[in-house]
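Minutes, project check-in
Item: structure for the 232-residue chain
Input as provided by the requester:
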Amino acid sequence: MKPSTLFVAVLAGVLASCAGSEGLDERSSAVQVATDLPAPESTRPTLDLQTYRIGPSDTLAVSVFGAPELDREATVDAAGNFSMPLTGSIPAAGKTSQELADAIAERLRGRYLKNPRVAVNLKEAAARTITVDGAVRQPGVYPVGGTMTLQRAIATAKGVDDAANIQNIVVFRTVGGKKMAAMFNLRDIRAGRYADPQLYPDDIIVVGESGAKKFMKQMMNFPILAQFIPLL
């Protein structure tokens, strides 16, 4: 196929897709479409990092002031233990971050350090995460720490990418056993015309793509087409 023919074929496909309406379809049988999403009925309380009790599969970062060689980032094992150099395995499940820091410091005191100062930070709470997908710079699963909103979630994913359509952002949520979805316009939220919606653990956020932006991005992968050429 000649370059000009390929260009016409791709352009026709993009224009056809742009002609349809973007967003959620009211006729969808997979999810219940809503203008706003209610909070899940069994919403877990907002994560308070000071009172949160560590559990298996949580990821922790431990810092020992003045002894960087002892710093450790790892996951609590299935038995609820956290392992560190010199201290070995320490029971962590059921403790707050401060309680675990005190336990580690006690293991190090006297034998290895005179007056150890230890900090434990929760990097990821395994059971409290959201998923950010679509046209963002770093899609992935992220922990929910404190109050999470749509703007904060997108910022956590390093922001939208060049192909994003910020007027077409869909949040999927399970409420009372039913899958629900609502669309949000990030431009209006940023402008203060609408409140920044709160997110909850297990929410899935999908940032849509602009057909035109996606098309231009794809064309940059075809050097011979990244220029004006005759269509005949």
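Outcome recorded: Helices lie at 3-19, 97-108, 150-156, 186-190, 211-219.
No further action items on this chain.
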